[in-house]
Amino acid sequence: MQTRLIFAALRKHRLATVLIAMEIALACAVLCNACFMIANRLQLTKVDGGVDERALAVLTLSGFDAAQPGDLNARVTAGLRAIPGMQSVSVVGSVPFAGHGTNAGVTLDPAGKRFGGVLGFYTDGPGSFEALGLHLVAGRAPQAEDFQPMAAFVPNDSQVVVSRTLAEHLWPDEDPLGKEFWCGNFHFRVVGVVAHMARPGAGEGGTGTIEWSVFVPAQPGPNLAGTYLLRADPKDLPRVLRDAKAAIAKIAPDVVLDHDASRTIGELRERYFRNDRVMAGMLVGVIAALLGVTALGIVGLASFWVAQRRKQIGIRRAIGATRGDILRYFQTENFLIVGFGIALGMLLAYALNAVLMKFYELPHLPLYYLPVGALALWLLGQLAVLGPALRAAAVPPVVATRSV
């Protein structure tokens, strides 16, 4: 009976009802997708890099003569290894979370017809695999004979180690050991699998592809020089890195030290995910502002309707309606309006997610975000309408009828 009365009243205020329902629909669509994006970004920042981050740092040089990389590598590695507390120094192409690295598309056949995805490549020299602390779960680590001269960005024919995530992507439900893939004319054969290995630089697809990484053993030379992986005890690492930076001026006075890129892996990780944390914070602000505006809209509309219905409220109170009846009336009315907005908002949420998937490579919106968003908006609606509903329930019958 009360629901029928509510629908009859809403038909007399179609425009206001539709406007508030549309506002709730928009809030639902944005809320679901923004929460999903926040969760996606925060999940990305917690990715396991697969390396011993607390014990590692990188030193990057530039401005050296590319024609004499062997001399530079020999001088730098020998000089840095003499620093007290230095456990190892190795020549690398990149390190996790450096923000840059080699990304290239690969295929699972030499003809290039079976595309495997865009992968991140580590081209690192002898000793780097052990220094990184990668955890081998299948196969073997690179051997001395696997470190071959680089033809371009990788050796022509490489025995490589891949992450478990990448192996499951390329060869689901198959043993990845011995599998082959190609990047143009470059050939790779998998000899080992590690538990985790985050790609050096940004890649496509967010959290799903951040571990699509390949470790390619390579011999230092013209295409592999100037970047050095330092390993030390975690408590000594800041001092060791500081001493290494100071020592470069004496070891190789002919080069330029890149102070911005020469950091601990922990610092690189912090910087790498800074934009993701900032974006998550901005989205939280957007959600708070949108929910605040939605709540104010509900409060304003409910207060307006209470002022308009003082006569009806007084009559209902006079014929026996309790304060609880009046309170439930406005709460039920709000529940129905919010419910209509949520139903439309769920469709808008999926439409918005489809746009984000197309242009920003966001994953598909999981279904469970919809009921969570609906529950949040229903709760917001009930809290927002509570004040006006309590004022309506407090209207005395005599005052209400005399005010007409």
UniProtKB/TrEMBL annotation:
The keyword Transmembrane is annotated on this UniProt entry: yes
Transmembrane segments annotated in the record for this chain: 278-307, 335-356, 368-386
Main location: membrane
Keyword Cell membrane: yes
Bilayer topology annotation: Multi-pass membrane protein
Pfam families registered for this protein in UniProt: FtsX, MacB_PCD
ABC3 transporter permease C-terminal domain segment(s): 286-396
Subcellular location, record wording: Cell membrane
Recorded superkingdom: Bacteria
Domain MacB-like periplasmic core: 82-221
UniProt entry keywords in alphabetical sequence: Cell membrane, Membrane, Transmembrane, Transmembrane helix
Family in the record: Belongs to the ABC-4 integral membrane protein family.
Protein name in the entry: FtsX-like permease family protein
